[in-house]
Amino acid sequence: MDFGKLSDISRVDFTLPPDHPDTRPLLERHKLNAALKPKVYIGLPVWVNKPWVGTYYPATMREKDSLLWYSKQFNTIELNSTHYHIPSPDTIDRWRQTVPQNFTFCPKFPQLISHETQLSKALDLTATFCETIAGLEENLGDAFLQLPPYFAPRQLPDLETFVKFVPESVPLAVELRHPDWFVDNVASMELFDVLEKYRAGTVLTDVAGRRDVLHMRLTTPTAMVRFVGNGLHPTDYSRINAWVERLKEWFDAGLQKLYFFVHEPDNVTSPELATYLIEQLNKVCCLDLQPPKKFVQHVQGELF
Fold this sequence. Notes:
Layout (H helix, E strand, L loop, with lengths): L22 H7 L9 E6 L21 H8 L2 E4 L9 H10 L5 E4 L3 H4 L8 H11 L9 E4 L9 H10 L6 E4 L4 H4 L1 H13 L3 E6 L15 E7 L5 H20 L3 E7 L6 H16 L19
Parallel strand pairs: 1-2, 1-8, 2-3, 4-5, 5-6, 6-7, 7-8
Helix pairs in contact: 9-10
């Protein structure tokens, strides 16, 4: 992901910001029985990656079976392909039939809706997209609307029309990138009120070059985090540690569901950092998430 990417991170303050003042009260209003564990989904932004063959995928795997093996290792996917085109019903059926029952797809709204057309003028296309991804049935996770850097606070009425239009059967999270959303307190308050009113969530993107987008405001009891690492730099691990501590606080306060997507350059090492995240969540938050397993390749001629 190029958004917020820096070639030099030596001067970046990666400290996780404090919660928005309205996040904890929101979670506490939705708190369920303490005996119920939150639903936690950890995944990556792609399922096809040749360097994973022989490590996280079997060495003999055919590329067309990538989703099958990915879904054995992770329980969600940041579905970026839908940003470029709406898949056919046959494709949706094939995806759904390939993955286990507890696997979730989190599709990104097409750029024709989010970037190239005013949201309120793309409602017909939005209806088509929502109808299509509804075919994922129980495997549909939260869809997310990634708005471009030029989508400014003055366009809030357009966003409200859109989130009101999206059916409740399609859970929605919104990612905003225009800096004014994060410096104008009135604009951000109005934004979060709209999202909370229509039960639309927020996307929290943790990336080196845009620390402002970590507004730490939840508008539903679901959190979606997009974490962008820097090639397994030591700060990747310290940042994950900070997230695990914050997530424990949110789980204790009432967070019901988490989607956490791990990005790395070329995503070659994303599974490694995701494994670390899962291990720390299990340890600190008393979860029982299954980490991905590496395939051991036997060396020819090796007896023991």
